[in-house]
Amino acid sequence: MSCIKDNKLYLTLTTAGLDFVSTAHWGVYTLDLSNYTSPGALKEVGKLFFERGGKVMGDHAGHIVYDDAAGTFLIGVSTWGDFTYNGVQINYTRESRDVLHGVHILDAQELDLPTALQREPTGNWDPHFVRIGQEWYVAFVESPTQGNPWDHHPALAKGDSIENLTLVDAKEELRQTQGMVIQKVRGDWYVLCSSGRGEIPALEDPEGVPLGSFRMYDLEMKLVAYLNDTTSPKWPYPTNIPHPMITPLPDLPGQGDTKWIMLTFNETFFYIDFLGYGTHGNFVVMDGPTWEGYTSSVPGSGP
């Protein structure tokens, strides 16, 4: 679900720094839905930093959700701020103050996540929270190694609180999948994630060229669809493992059915010879009139 106020969509984005992920930080933005193709449609309205070990870190890649039952914001974040290729964890905190505006330095603690791995993973990132009825669902990335090789796959847990979670499933056969999103489509909830062109097994076009894909699972982590298919991608895959950050917009005059957009980036690296990998490009909005035509269902299932 999304937060829209005064026709502005609130979203979080990782703001790249002058090097790899440890120099980035986390920002809160609004997107003016009246004309989101205009140069000034995207505006930064807040920044979140996190205090850990006596230092202020630019942790990022997280999720903010308002818990109306508790009257607080639930914030999950990945500890990329001091990444040295030796582990990442998901921290979380709750705040009663408005964290969507202004600059905030927050304290957070590690989120205890279940695992299906025979060995403890040294990495978890990309948390996404949703409360459905009386249960919390937490989608996250589970990663036994980061660098040489990178190995990461999607996982889902649930429980009566985020402090009491059990594992639904983790797709350990995947190696290059991340970017967790839980979204409601036509009354049902789905877990979405992104598999890069180097995923094993990778989707391929008719000529055998590897394709990136946006995977769509149900709440039992059964694969039900792809957001882009192998022959004519409906949602282009513009860069290296972009998150499938899809959101429905309110019915607009003359539009009929709900309009969907995906917010992403396009791999136009900024001064790559100097800064190297990590600046993932210009902000991009991809859209279409309705949900139909934007999924390729797996045989025997589908949203």
Short description:
1% of the residues lie in helices and 50% in strands. It has one helix at residues 272-275; strands at residues 3-5, 8-15, 25-32, 42-52, 55-57, 60-67, 72-78, 90-95, 102-107, 109-110, 123-132, 135-145, 151-161, 164-170, 177-185, 188-195, 203-204, 210-211, 213-217, 223-226, 245-249, 259-265, 283-288, 296-297.
| CATH topology term | Tachylectin-2, Chain A
Q: What would CATH call the class?
A: Mainly Beta
Helix content: under 10%
C-alpha termini separation: 17 Å
Question: What is the oligomer described by this structure?
Answer: single chain
Low-confidence stretches: none
Give the mean pLDDT.
Answer: 87
* CATH homologous superfamily classification: Glycosyl hydrolase domain, family 43
Shape label: globular
Structural Rg: 18 Å
Q: Please indicate the count of domains.
A: 1
Q: Got a strand count?
A: 24
H/E order of the elements?
EEEEEEEEEEEEEEEEEEEEEEHEE
Class of secondary structure makeup: mainly beta
How would you sum up the major sheet? 6 strands, mixed
Number of helices: 1
> Strand fraction band?
over 45%
Level-2 CATH architecture: 5 Propeller
